[in-house]
Amino acid sequence: MDTEGTESCNISESMVVQEDIPPDPSLATDLIVNAETQIDSETVSHGMNHAEGGWPKTMDASDIEATGRYRKKVQKDVCYQHTVMEIATVTEHCVKQSKADIYSDFYQAKRVVKKTKPSHQQEPSARTINVFRDPNKEKRAATSLSWHPLDNHKLAVAYSCLEFQRAPKNMSFDSYIWNTEKSNKPEMTLKPVSPLVCLEYNPKDIHILVGGGYNGQIGYWDTRSGSRPVQMSAIEHSHRDPVYKVIWLQSKICTETFSASTDGQVLFWDIRKISEPSKRLVLDPSKKGNCDNAFGAVSMEFENTMAKFMVGTEQGVVVSCNRKLETPNESIVGTYHGHHGPIYALQRNPFFPKNFLTVGDCTARIWSEDINETSIMSTKNHMTYLLDGCWSPVRPSVFFTVKMDGTLDVWDILFKQKDPTLSLKVCDEALYSIRVQNKDSLVCCGSQLGTVKLLRMSPSLFRLKKNEKALVSEMFERETRRGKVLESQYKDRNQMKQSCSKEDKGEEGDIEELLACIEMEFFENEDFEKKIEDEEKERRKTACEETSK
After folding, report:
1. What are the contacts of 339-342 at 24+ separation with CB within 8 A?
2. At what angle do helices 508-548 and 468-502 cross, to 10 degrees?
3. Which of 25, 239, 376, 393: disulfide with 261, CB 3.0–4.6 Å?
């Protein structure tokens, strides 16, 4: 020990001190805290907002395109890659120090597994998750719906009063873009010169929308430029009636569109010069281009893979047209007769484009392009009118219809063809429009009073079943063959009637022979129908067995 000048102690490394120090019980009393002397405290619960950060101040974090480009730029930086590798090395070292298995399930014994039915055995259902109401005092019908091509939370709605000369004087012309997560007020207002009857997003440029007005004009909007239209068509070159449908022609630049109206015309436009149409087609069945004899267009369908487009008319006839429109005689390819009133919806099956759906009067019908006289399938006659419909984008056997009594029907033709799989009362007023989202199981319906309801369907309605495509293809082919047989018999019968009318009508023997032939054909058709029903029952039984496996 060195005691001179400093109070220090030097201990060599070889020195070992061993001593047992027992605890002192008297010191334990100092650690006991009297409960009466504790200070009462109150707990307060409050939230904390974790905002996304790290973006430059000049960048909008909600802009998907801008953030995507910035993220790709940063990921290509060598410094960024080096930093990520360093952080990953440190993280891996810390994980390896822990003796616990991070992949093991520590709560396996306590977990209660809830048994659920497979998706194909669940009952079809739907629930309303949001409601968007027309913010104006004078309510208008939600006549058209269009989902944003990329953002699943944006929905464009066109509002218009379709009752001729019954619109109130102070009715607003505005249409809106809604955010499905914020139903209090619209995200953006579109201000046209006339109420919009139809509105569609551009599939390539997500900032562009094209709309058709009640006065027959066409206009397009750029959401980056404000609420006013960028350009409108000239009145003298526009439609004479309301524009009920506009469709984009998908191409590399996607600037071409065409419109249909009840004035009997289909007009082709280019938004780079939208003042006047580039082409014009008159829906005259005589192919003479006479507007007085033309069919009024209410709906329209175009498939990019085909050189034809189809128009649903007020007269209940579907007109198939050539897209090129080289000569007036070759513009109209064929017609399909089946409805007794306006065809409000027309759409091809996304999986089988040769088969298309029509919705009009009190029925919905499925057609084949190879048969013009009759549809291959149809629903039952409802008590109220059907006003819109569409196919499911994920299941080839499912389609949707809306009715005037406010009911939404979901149909699955693999299991039922005369009755809907799910019937849901959405509202008390008429439903004018319906649109299904391509990615999620969301369906939106627009009503007569401007209310748009967003519904989420059950997984059983939005999950592709096993062998569903093959079964639907087989069903369409079988029904097409049956339709061709009936069509040929119908033509033969007409020829027989025409030949009979040319002969002497006083010969009763010929008439009796004709009636006997018709009666025999009738019973043959009955046997054929019975055979088809037996095959259908057997096919349903096989389909149920395969899906249950």
Report:
1. 339/363, 339/365, 340/316, 341/314, 341/316, 341/385, 342/298, 342/312, 342/313, 342/314, 342/315, 342/316
2. 180
3. 239
CA 324, 329, 331, 333 dihedral sign is negative
Over 60: is that where the pLDDT of 444 sits? yes
Q: Please state, in angstroms and rounded to a whole number, the distance separating the CA atoms of residues 83 and 182.
A: 39
Domain covering 120-463, topology: Methylamine Dehydrogenase; Chain H (2.130.10)
Q: In what order do the strands lie in the sheet with 218-222?
A: 196-201, 208-213, 218-222, 231-232
Residue 32: how many other CB atoms lie within 10 Å: 7
Q: Give this prediction's pTM.
A: 0.69
Contacts of 299 (CB under 8 A, 6+ apart): 244, 245, 260, 311, 312, 343, 344, 345, 346
Per-residue tokens: 545: 């067995």
Query: Could you read off the pLDDT of 61-85 as tens digits, one per residue?
Result: 777 778 888 888 888 888 888 888 8
Q: In this structure, are residues 232 and 217 in contact, taking their beta carbons and an 8 Å threshold?
A: yes
Q: Which of 399, 395, 448, 393 lies closest to 426, judged by CA?
A: 448
| Class of residue 545 by CB neighbours under 10 A (exposed 0-12, middle 13-18, buried 19+) | exposed
Backbone angles phi, psi at 299, to 5 degrees: -140, 165
pLDDT tens digits, 344-398: 999 999 999 999 999 999 999 999 998 888 899 999 999 999 999 999 999 999 9
Please state whether 369 falls in left (phi above 0), alpha (psi between -120 and 50) or beta. alpha
End-to-end CA distance of the chain: 89
Rounded distance, CA 332 to CA 323, Å? 9
pLDDT in tens, 454-489: 999 998 898 888 899 999 999 999 999 988 888 787
- Determine the Cα–Cα distance for residues 31 and 39; give it in Å rounded to an integer: 17
DSSP 291: G
Return the domain boundaries, the chain.
120-463
Work out the number of other CB atoms within 10 angstroms of the CB of residue 418.
11
Q: How many CA atoms lie within 13 A of 305 on its CB side?
A: 7
Q: Burial code of 276-314, b = ≥16 C-beta within 10 A, e = fewer?
A: ebeeebbbbeeeeeeeeebbbbbbbbbbeeeeebbbbbb
